[in-house]
Structure formats: structure tokens, C-alpha cells
């Protein structure tokens, strides 16, 4: 079941931050982890102070914080001192606009230097930062701006034109749109980010910040209903900092590259906050995935620690298979690289071994989710790897496997839950609340937050097995959400968009397994009376989905089906659509409409 275990060198050139798993776990406390940070001079804790200002006033002031590789391959750098000034200016801009504590500032940007200015300046101002994925279409963007009560949006002219301008009126609370780069003058109701930032003073006194003040809002998807806004507080930086040391093995001298998009939680926690809190140099690539470009960046930028995703690794594997001359990676000097980790979707054992053979380093899988705010389960630099396993819980993280009931979710009896004691038995992964980056709520949705807990555990919605030695193995999701290319997609959001097309009566959306993306979104659609299911209509619906939802969320496949299976209460049974699609047993159909 485990395949080939990968053992580690006894004495690597850079001694790992965690050497003895059991000893570190038993000695660890979160209050000790807090001592690794500075705190605000007058007391309190602010993420941006930890990530920037404390370094800017230390001997790291002139160290490069960001090494930005532009699309044309030109490289520019920003020191910690300069980042402190830029973020102070942006905090000042917000203050001058009357945007204050708790007000929500959204970003809809790629990986550009201004993203860092906007995120950290917002945190300095004690406003709340909410990142959006730039591959979202107008529907998901509008919905999140509305649900998150956006006051400010920082974006580019092109993204604003394509995704926001026409919908602006339906987000009346959005008072300020700041345009990065050229174009603001041609767009009514916007202002130039660059002009405002360069006119602002380059010092800013961070107001008192309590560790419990809200810092970040991350939208995530559930099976039903609107996207959920997971609320995170400034104290989360304690967990970002500690877990980046243990699970990513970050050392002060590292050059670190995280390929995650800033619109998702990994791009924020481990693309921005954690590495800067460690005072390392962060490589920021504005370009898109391209095998040659990525090897070049790893080599030329002398990246030492690389955090990426299974889909990206699978794309690299296609471009540079294990059996072969490895010409592409060999044309670049990857000798600086010393640690590779991945997150977001199951990492197939072949990818771990491919890393060892082609990059010269195995890939360390780790697991977490938007709600947990930081890595919970990981393979560590000093420990053996069991390819296919997500690893073991981090110090300070208490995990378990809970028994499931007939509905597939955790079995709750009399308010209590049952832990699965035997090894290798499937159940739902649960975590004991109490780590600093645990989400504090879903925005405006107490009920869904409460439903995420039972018997004193936070229920992750993931199915896992734990082996006899305590290693966790991912099995699947307990609900219908879809992971495609590492992005979590709510089927309800896709179904709702499709149902706005005049030809569509109803839709049921599932993830169809795909060798590279993990899953692709497939929609089953029933048509309104009298509408013919033609290839033209199929193309039209695919295009409609892309226009409304954007390429990352839209269905890649449409199937017409006038008899979508439904529960007696009338809901489309995605589980059955999926089972039929995959040729799996259909399981318990007692709630299917039309059964006795
Ligand atoms: P998100 O909240 O968008 O970060 O998605 C979190 C979900 O991604 C988890 O609940 C898992 O279903 C999946 N996930 C994250 N990391 C892993 C991993 N290492 N292996 C398998 N699935 C993962």
C-alpha cells in the first residue's frame, strides 16, 4: 500500500528545523511559537509588522524581500526597507480615503509587486484583506464583492473592464476602485493606485492591533449555497511562522518560491505572510506556467525552497518524464534547491518519486484547507516519506479520524462522535480547535460555522485513513465540492450560472477525474421544454459558462440528460451522476425520487 519508502540522509548540509518528530511534538506549545515573533512595540500583534516592519528596523533592512520576475523575464527587487515604505504609503492612502479598521479591501491581481503593497498596507491599516482569483469570471467576482461587503478593490484596468465595470452598480458598497498600472483615467469611478501611493507619506504608525482582530477573509466553496467567507485574525501569523519552519523547513538564508495564485489561501499564507515573517527572499513570478520558464526560474534565481501544487508537478512530469534524458531540467543549474513541497490536492506517489529522480529531491506532500489557515499535516525534511501519504500532524496540531454515518458525514450521537481506533479504516479527518490560524467564523453565517464542529472537533469534510504509525492517507471528499487544478469549486455556483441560460431547466455538476488536473468540471444539463440538445447548443453553453464563471470554474464538458436523478425533495443527486459517470456502484438510493 505504501510503495517505496524514501529515506533521508542522516546529516544533510542544512540541518532541518524539525529533526526529531516525536520530541518536537511533545515539547511544542503555541505560546512558545508566539515568542518567535516580535509583537507591536506598544503590545498587540499585527501580521504586517511581523512580515515587514520588524525586519525593516533590523539588520535585514537592506535584504531583498521580493525578487520579482516580470512576464518579459526582467527582474526587479524590493528590499524589506522599501517594502516597509511602500506598505506604509498604501496604509496612508486607505486612511486618507476614510477606510479604517475592519473595512474590507479586495485584491483582484496577479503576482505583481503591487499585490504585496496592497495586502500588507491593508493589514497595517487594520483593514481586512480579501484576495480574489484573477481567473474568476464576472459572476464569482461580483458575488464575492457583495458577500464580503467590499469597500475598496485594487485591480488592473484590463481585469476591471472584463470582470467588474458592468456589475459595479450591483455592489453599491464598493466606494473605491484603485487601478494598478495605466488606464485609471479612462475608467470612470476609478483612481490610480500608483499615483495615490507615490503621493502618500512613507511612514505610518500601525494602530493598536489585537491578535483577535480580523486580518484576512478567504472565500471557499461548500456543496450548496453561496461561497463561504472564512474569517482569519492577526494571530494566524504565529501559525504561518511556525509551520513554515517545520513543514517547509524555511531558514533565514533561503530563497523561496511559492507558485500558488494569490487569490487562494496558499498564495496568501505561504506566498506572502509566512516567508516574509521569516525574513527570507521571496521569488515572485508574474508569468504563467511554462515548463522551461519554471526550470529557468528555479535555476537562475537559485531557489532553495519550492512550494508548489500537484497539477503543476504533473504538468512538469509530462514535459520532462522520469524515463528519459531529462534534457530540460539538466539545462538549468538546480543545485541550490534543497526542499520541495506541494499542497492542495492528492499528490500521486509517482510525482514524489519523479521529484527525486528528475529534480534530485523528493516532493513533500502536505495538507490543509482554507479554514485551517495553515499546514496541518505534512511530510517533514528530516523524516522518511511514504509516497502517497500526506504525512503526520504538525506540532501543536491534534488530528483524528471520525466514524461516518449513513449520510457519509461524521456520525454524531447524543452530541458525541466516535474516533476510529483501528488503523487503515476510512473516516472523516477532524482537528481539535485551538491553533492560532483556525478560522473564526464564516462571514454572516453562524449556522454553517456551527455545523463544521461536532463533539469538540472541527470536521474537515475530507475522508482519510491513518496507518498504524500515524501517517495520514487522503481518500476523497465527504461532500460534492470539486478540486480542479488545485482550486476548490462549489458545484452549486456552476449549476446556478448554467441555469441562467434560457435553454437550461436544471443542472447537476460533478468532478470527472483527469490525469493532470485531478478533476475537471462536468455538467449534466436538462433542457427546457422544446429545446433540442444539439452540438451547437453544447458549444454555446460551454462558452456561456466561461464568460460568466471564468476558465478556472466553468464546465469543460456538458452532457444533456432529460432525466437527471433527483432526491424526493427535488435536489439533483450529484453522487449518483458521479457514480454513473465513473461506473461505480450507485450505493444507497433510498432517497432517489421514484423509489418506493
Ligand atoms: P482549499 O480550502 O481550497 O485550500 O481546499 C482544501 C481542500 O483541498 C482539502 O479539504 C482537501 O480536500 C484538498 N487538499 C488539500 N491538500 C491536500 C493534499 N495534500 N492531499 C489531498 N487533498 C488535499
UniProtKB/TrEMBL annotation:
One of its GO terms (molecular function) is acetate-CoA ligase activity. It holds the Pfam family AMP-binding_C. It comes from the Bacteria. The keyword rRNA-binding does not apply. Residues 60-443 form the AMP-dependent synthetase/ligase domain. GO terms for biological process: acetyl-CoA biosynthetic process. Gene3D superfamilies: 3.30.300.30, N-terminal domain of ligase-like. One of its GO terms (cellular component) is cytosol. Its EC number is 6.2.1.1. InterPro entries: AMP-bd_C, AMP-bd_C_sf, AMP-binding_CS, AMP-dep_synth/lig_dom, ANL_N_sf. Residues 493-571 form the AMP-binding enzyme C-terminal domain. The keyword Lyase does not apply. Keywords: Acetylation, ATP-binding, Ligase, Nucleotide-binding. This is acetate--CoA ligase. It comes from Streptomyces caelestis.
Amino acid at each position: 500500500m505504501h510503495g517505496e519508502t524514501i529515506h533521508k540522509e542522516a546529516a544533510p548540509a542544512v540541518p532541518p528545523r524539525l529533526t526529531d518528530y516525536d520530541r518536537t511534538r511533545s515539547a511544542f506549545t503555541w505560546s512558545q511559537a508566539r515568542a518567535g515573533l516580535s509583537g507591536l512595540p506598544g503590545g498587540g500583534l499585527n501580521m504586517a509588522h511581523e512580515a515587514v516592519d520588524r525586519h525593516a528596523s533590523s539588520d535585514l533592512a537592506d535584504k531583498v524581500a521580493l525578487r520579482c520576475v516580470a512576464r518579459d523575464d526582467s527582474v526587479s527587487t524590493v528590499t524589506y526597507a522599501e517594502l516597509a515604505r511602500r506598505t506604509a504609503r498604501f496604509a496612508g492612502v486607505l486612511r486618507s480615503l476614510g477606510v479604517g479598521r475592519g473595512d474590507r479591501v479586495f485584491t483582484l491581481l496577479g503576482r505583481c509587486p503591487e499585490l504585496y503593497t496592497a495586502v500588507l498596507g491593508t493589514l497595517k491599516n487594520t483593514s481586512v484583506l480579501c484576495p480574489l482569483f484573477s481567473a474568476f469570471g464576472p459572476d464569482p467576482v461580483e458575488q464575492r464583492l457583495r458577500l464580503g461587503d467590499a469597500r475598496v478593490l485594487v485591480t488592473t484596468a484590463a481585469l476591471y473592464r472584463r470582470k467588474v465595470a458592468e456589475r459595479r452598480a450591483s455592489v453599491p458598497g464598493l466606494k473605491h476602485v484603485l487601478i494598478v498600472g495605466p488606464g485609471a483615467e479612462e475608467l470612470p469611478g476609478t483612481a490610480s493606485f500608483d499615483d495615490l501611493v507615490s503621493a502618500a507619506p512613507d511612514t505610518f504608525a500601525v494602530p493598536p492591533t489585537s491578535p483577535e482582530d480580523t486580518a484576512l477573509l478567504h472565500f471557499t466553496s461548500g456543496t450548496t449555497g453561496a461561497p463561504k467567507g472564512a474569517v482569519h485574525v492577526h494571530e494566524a501569523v504565529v501559525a504561518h511562522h511556525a509551520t513554515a519552519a517545520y513543514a517547509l523547513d524555511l531558514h533565514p538564508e533561503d530563497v523561496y518560491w511559492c507558485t500558488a495564485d494569490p487569490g487562494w489561501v496558499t498564495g496568501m499564507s505561504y506566498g506572502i505572510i509566512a516567508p516574509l515573517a521569516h525574513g527570507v527572499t521571496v521569488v515572485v513570478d508574474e508569468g504563467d506556467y511554462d515548463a522551461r520558464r519554471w526550470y529557468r526560474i528555479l535555476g537562475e534565481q537559485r531557489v532553495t525552497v519550492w512550494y508548489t501544487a500537484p497539477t503543476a508537478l504533473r504538468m512538469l512530469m509530462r514535459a520532462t518524464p522520469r524515463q528519459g534524458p531529462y534534457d530540460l531540467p539538466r539545462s538549468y543549474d538546480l543545485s541550490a534547491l534543497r526542499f520541495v513541497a506541494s499542497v492542495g490536492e492528492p499528490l500521486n506517489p509517482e510525482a514524489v518519486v519523479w521529484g527525486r529522480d528528475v529534480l534530485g529531491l523528493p516532493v513533500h506532500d502536505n495538507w490543509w484547507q482554507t479554514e485551517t489557515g495553515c499546514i496541518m499535516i505534512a511530510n517533514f525534511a528530516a523524516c522518511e516519506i511514504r509516497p502517497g501519504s500526506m504525512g503526520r500532524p504538525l506540532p501543536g496540531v491534534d488530528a483524528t479520524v471520525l466514524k461516518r454515518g449513513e449520510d457519509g458525514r461524521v456520525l454524531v450521537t447524543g452530541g458525541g462522535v466516535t474516533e476510529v481506533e483501528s488503523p487503515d479504516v476510512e473516516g472523516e479527518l477532524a482537528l481539535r480547535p485551538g491553533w492560532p490560524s483556525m478560522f473564526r467564523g464564516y462571514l454572516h453565517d453562524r449556522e454553517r460555522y456551527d455545523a463544521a464542529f461536532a463533539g469538540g472537533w472541527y470536521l474537515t469534510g475530507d475522508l482519510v485513513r491513518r496507518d498504524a504509525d500515524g501517517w495520514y492517507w487522503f481518500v476523497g471528499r465527504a461532500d460534492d465540492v470539486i478540486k480542479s487544478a488545485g482550486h476548490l469549486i462549489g458545484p452549486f455556483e456552476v449549476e446556478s450560472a448554467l441555469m441562467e441560460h434560457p435553454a437550461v431547466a436544471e443542472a447537476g455538476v460533478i468532478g470527472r477525474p483527469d490525469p493532470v488536473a485531478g478533476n475537471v468540471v462536468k455538467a449534466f444539463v436538462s433542457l427546457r421544454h422544446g429545446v433540442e440538445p444539439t452540438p451547437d447548443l453544447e458549444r454555446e453553453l460551454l462558452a456561456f459558462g466561461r464568460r460568466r464563471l471564468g476558465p478556472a470554474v466553468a464546465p469543460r464538458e456538458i452532457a444533456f440528460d432529460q432525466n437527471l436523478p433527483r432526491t424526493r425533495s427535488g435536489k439533483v443527486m450529484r453522487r449518483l451522476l458521479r457514480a454513473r459517470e465513473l461506473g461505480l456502484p450507485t450505493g444507497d438510493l433510498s432517497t432517489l425520487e421514484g423509489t418506493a
